[in-house]
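Researcher: Sequence of GED domain-containing protein follows. Predict its structure.
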Amino acid sequence: MGYVKELEEQEQERKNKRIAGEDEGPAEEPESYRYPPAQILDARHAMMYSDRLTILKLRLAALKSKRCKGGPQNDVFCPEVFLDVVADKLAYTSTMFINIEFLDHFFYQFPREIDSRLIYDLDRNEIVQFARENPVIRRHLELQERKDKLEEVMKQLNSLSTLRPDSKPTPRRQRGLFGGVF
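Model: Prediction complete. Tokens:
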């Protein structure tokens, strides 16, 4: 890791010289012994992780300090706690939003998708057969069929009664309120 630090320092010096406009002297000769690029990359990752670890340790030490344990009135001195609460709230809100989107898709889109597949892919008899699988709907369909049959019979009886003349003609004038009493 020390070798990688030296490489990064040399690279930084070269960049600074280029920015300052200084001409670089003759290119330095590469060392006779060099590490493989994969090991250099691993060392850079290790340095990055160690830097992140030290930063996290410092932040944790700051959170454990007396200033941060003072409560919410010290949020100016200890923003980590406040930011943690904000992050939790954002995570909760985003989770709720995602859940609502899934529920909307399930409760709104899913039944309509099933309906469209049932209606457009099945013929009338298959739809009725599918509906009869539910006992409540089956009873309702049977009741509807009986009602339709009874209405058809009633129409037939009405048509027969209009075709047949009455055997007893109705009197033209009724006898009055008290009929045949007086």
